[in-house]
Design goal:
The complex is a heterodimer of chains A (about 625) and B (about 150). Chain A is elongated and about 105 Å long. In chain A, the strands form five sheets. In chain A, strands 2, 3, 4, 5, 6, 7, 8, 9, 10, 11 and 12 form an eleven-stranded antiparallel sheet that branches. In chain A, strands 13, 14, 15, 17, 18, 20 and 21 form a seven-stranded antiparallel sheet that branches. Chain A has a seven-stranded mixed sheet with strand order 26-27-28-29-31-30-32, with helices on one face. Chain A has about 625 residues and is mostly beta strands. Chain A is built from five helices and 35 strands. The two termini of chain A are about 20 Å apart. Chain B has one domain. Helix content of chain B is about 55%, strand content about 0%. Chain B is built from five helices and no strands. In chain B, helix 4 runs antiparallel to helix 5. The N terminus of chain B is likely disordered. Classes of the chains: A mainly beta (about 625), B mainly alpha (about 150). Chains A and B meet through strand 1 of A and helix 1 and helix 5 of B.
Chain lengths: ~625, ~150
């Protein structure tokens, strides 16, 4: 008896909220702020909602804070200003201003106080806080003035105290440090040109090679009762680019989401994986099975050599980072499992009919058809090949198949099709489905055999690779080929009353898509009493009467072939209808609902409402 | 802080909703409908492929038998010679675009049969590999033509 292949089942998705850091701090707003402008030397801008800063004409911002209530020098003092708009990223410098007598409604370029020593500089990114460490200046109660200046000739504007995000002076107590917060899930990024700035509340994680910008993630893994079969860390990319983002381990799990900066960021350890090329709007997956083996805290870093910034959704964003765990499959459903059958599914995102994944009336309807499948709540999905057009790349799998049919990935029994080989060795397919696609070769991700078998209910099912010219030296389905020999041995070792076979190219089809190379496999199947052959490749629905390998009617011992190439991609039609074709329908999308009874099967075609059609029936196994 | 744990057959769902809404790209105009009668639906092309089925199956089996050889075999080499020779029979495929790809690799298979007959199994395998690679690449081309994608 063959060992059951592992079925990928995500049992946990962990993206959890972190408690805020319990720092004892006081946040003050300015008691006065304004800016002054050299080409309008007598004009006062005290009521403006923005603090404008520019190098030409020279335009400087001024802020004053009134500090009270301190009983000791603060352990840390930070001035924070919100970037409302900017013409460039060139740094803005915060400097001390000794004169505290200026007034918000009176200051202008002509009477502005002298600007003292620079306290810090930060590059400017719109929509972020810039933080300046002023601990050395703010040591006791009193008034403190600061100036914002730049050498850039492109102006930038910070929110003033009349604006939405008012400037802040954050004072942290000098008392005993608060107990460390319980470490939990967290993410942020750090940026070399803003070395003291924390980005813990950002909705994105930025990664860049210049200026060096690294993202950090921490997961709190709970609920595992055994090492997972597979653990996959996923992040959602907002950026397209060919240079990959690398995932590395981080030993330090105590860093603070709201405290980590470039200056105090934990060191980055061994590389765990690479994203490959990035596609905006798609998930990036990293295999962290070797790293995440039990409950606990795990930290990771994302880095890149690219000098073009990459943006990924943070846990404050829409598509939060997550780790998906896969465990051993549940026992096969007893009785008469209901499965969904279809092939030829997902368009590539660059298909003109892709339409954000929703397709049109005649193409790219993978989302609508997979919705039908979800509504059936099947025990399994038999996906009959050409899962992902046009070349089966991993990026397209993640961008198109995953959000549609991928919602059923964990119960999917995949079949490799010709379009999967548009990527070398069907590497996208074998990587996306992992061991589910070739369970006889665990860990294989390219040029894998792609044939395997499993039991479901009282049935035995064989999955074959009909890309015969691409395996075993080009005659991979011939008599005596490794696949044919495996098939014969597998069927002999699994005598069941009901047996089905799945592969992509149909042996018989009422058009030119019939594929004779699989004939030796059909010979083997017929000799072993296989009842049902399910295929795709022809983008239509066609059900044949039971036939022998020569294509002659054989109700007693024949194999019934049903072509279900209707999972969403596009339509193809028919030529001359073959003699034993009982039902055939072109221009159709939908799935076949198959009930696998212990002694027979029932089929019902469930059509997409836009292409109404029905076909149903029952048959007993040999 | 909360920990969301779920057991689901579907992909792990997003845990909550982001507030930032991004503008959806405009739907591209649908591509023009494919031709009604593609080569894949042409009865003449269908018949041509069907007429060639037995010869193609025999060629595959003969190639596999030759690949399994560990010592020269007159019977196996003769089978391969006949199988390659028979592939030249029959009418020309009634679709001009298919004429080259349906014969891809055949010249190499003929040379493989000749090497087999000469007892040079290494050269035979080399020619078979080259023929198989050409035939595999041509099958992609055939698929595109049948789907009217070319």
């Amino acid at each position: 008896m063959r060992r059951l292949p592992l079925l990928a089942v995500p049992i946990l998705g962990l993206v959890v909220l972190a408690a805020p850091v319990a720092a004892a701090s006081t946040t003050l707003q300015p008691v006065a702020d304004s800016y002054v402008q050299a080409d309008q030397p007598s004009v006062n801008f005290g009521t403006s909602t923005g603090l404008r800063v520019d190098g030409s004409p020279v335009t400087n911002g001024f802020l004053r804070f009134a500090v009270t209530g301190l009983t000791a020098a603060p352990s840390k003092a930070t001035v924070r200003v919100w970037v409302n708009a900017t013409g460039s990223s060139t740094a803005v410098t915060l400097s001390a201003v000794a004169d505290n007598t200026w007034t918000e409604s009176g200051i202008n370029y002509g009477n502005a106080p002298a600007i003292g020593a620079a306290l810090g500089s930060n590059a400017v990114t719109v929509g972020t806080w810039l933080s300046y460490d002023v601990t050395s200046s703010v040591t006791a109660n009193g008034s403190y003035s600061f100036a914002l200046t730049t050498t850039s000739t492109a102006s930038r504007t910070f929110d003033s105290r009349e604006g939405a995000n008012k400037p802040q002076l954050v004072l942290e107590d000098a008392g005993p440090p608060p107990p460390p917060p319980p470490a939990g899930p967290a993410d942020t990024y750090v940026q070399a040109d803003q070395p003291s700035t924390n980005f813990g509340t950002s909705t994105v994680l930025r990664v860049d090679g210049s200026p060096v910008t690294n993202a950090y993630l921490r997961f709190n893994v709970t609920g595992l009762t055994a090492p997972p079969t597979k653990a996959t860390l996923r992040v959602f990319s907002q950026t397209t680019g060919s240079t990959p983002v690398l995932l590395s381990a981080v030993a330090d799990t105590a860093w603070s989401e709201t405290g980590v900066t470039y200056n105090n960021a934990p060191s980055i350890g061994a590389q765990l994986g690479s994203s490959g090329a990035l596609t905006a709007g798609s998930w990036v997956s990293y295999d962290v099975t070797s790293k995440v083996t039990a409950n606990g805290l795990y930290s990771f870093a994302l880095t890149t050599a690219s000098t073009s910034s990459r943006s990924l959704d943070s846990r404050e964003g829409t598509n939060k980072p997550e780790i998906v765990f896969e465990a051993a499959p549940p026992p096969p459903p007893p009785g008469s499992p209901v499965v969904v059958v279809a092939g030829d599914a997902a368009c590539a995102p660059d298909d003109a009919n892709f339409n954000g994944g929703n397709g049109t009336a005649t193409a790219c309807r993978m989302k609508a058809v997979s919705d039908i499948a979800l509504g059936i709540s099947p025990a399994a999905v038999f996906m009959l090949g050409d899962e992902q057009y046009n070349s089966g790349s991993l990026a397209n799998f993640n961008a198109s198949y995953d959000p549609s049919w991928g919602r059923l990935k964990t119960i999917t029994r995949p079949v490799v099709g010709n379009h999967e080989y548009g990527t070398t060795g069907a590497g996208g397919y074998f990587t996306y489905f992992g061991n589910a696609a070739t369970p006889l070769q665990p860990g294989c991700t390219k040029n894998c055999d792609g044939w395997y078998s499993f039991n479901i209910g009282e049935w035995h099912v064989v999955v074959l690779n009909s890309e015969c010219t691409r395996i075993s030296g080009g005659s991979g389905c011939a008599a005596g080929s490794p696949q044919q020999q495996w098939l014969a041995a597998d069927l002999a070792a699994n005598p069941k009353q009901c047996t089905a076979a799945l592969f992509h190219r149909p042996r018989w089809s009422s058009n030119s898509f019939a594929f004779p190379d699989t004939a030796p496999l059909v010979d083997t199947m017929y000799a072993a009493g296989v009842d049902l052959l399910l295929t795709g490749h022809a983008h239509s629905y066609e059900r044949f009467a039971p036939q022998n390998p020569s294509g002659a009617l054989d109700n007693a011992n024949g194999i019934q072939e049903i072509i279900v190439g209707t999972a969403g991609s596009f339509f193809t039609g028919f030529g001359t209808i073959e003699p034993n074709s009982q039902t055939h329908k072109s221009n159709i999308f939908g799935v076949m609902k198959l009930t696998m009874r212990p002694t027979g099967y029932d089929w019902t075609f469930v059509a997409d409402p836009t292409t109404p059609f029905t076909d149903s029936g029952s048959r007993s196994c040999h | 802080m909360s920990i969301r744990t779920s057991i689901t057959i579907a992909a792990v769902a997003a845990m909550c909703c982001g507030s930032a809404a991004s503008a959806l790209p405009q739907a591209p105009a649908p591509v023009a409908a494919r031709q009604h009668v593609s080569p894949g639906e042409n009865p003449l092309v269908q018949r041509w492929f069907k007429n060639r089925e037995k010869r193609q199956i025999e060629l595959n089996d003969a190639l596999q038998a030759a690949r399994n050889l560990t010592a020269p075999s007159r019977a196996v080499c003769a089978r391969l010679t006949v199988a390659t020779w028979q592939m030249g029979f029959g009418p020309i495929v009634p679709e001009v675009k298919l004429r080259a790809p349906v014969d891809a690799g055949m010249a190499e298979f003929v040379r493989a049969a000749q090497a087999c007959a000469a007892g040079d199994l290494a050269k035979m395998r080399q020619q078979m590999d080259e023929g198989a690679a050409l035939r595999s690449a041509a099958l992609d081309h055939i698929d595109e033509i049948l789907d009217n994608e070319e």
